[in-house]
Structure prediction request, 130 residues.
Amino acid sequence: MAAEHKIITGKRKNAIARLYLTPGEGSTVINGRAAEAYFPREAWKFIIRQAFNLTETTGKYNVVANIRGGGLTGQAMALRHGISKALVDVAPHLRDTLKKAGLLTRDARKKERKKFGQKGARAKFQFSKR
Prediction:
């Protein structure tokens, strides 16, 4: 395996993205489908292109990703995290740009669990004194 075929992992909430970044014409394949078909919303497309736009590497790398878990927004953010890590792996001089934008930091926030005797994680049932 060549150095550019290293598997990089990106995470957000319960979504995990495993991806390969290879030099190419800028195609993105997610779970065997084109990125435009997998992420139809413009917001999701913007999220996955953000690292390339910031580092001015749009159209220079191909991405092949397998994403599992979570919703589509979490998956898009997990993919963005993985792409950012992969870009730093390929070109270490891009680290400062991506770090300042906050794309290399793993967003560890997850859904808080529901507690027993309560309506939700924080919400309580309505209290009646009488």
Q: What stands out?
A: The longest strand covers residues 15-23. Residues 3-101 form a domain with the Ribosomal Protein S5; domain 2 fold (CATH 3.30.230.10). The CA atoms of residues 76 and 119 lie 30 Å apart.
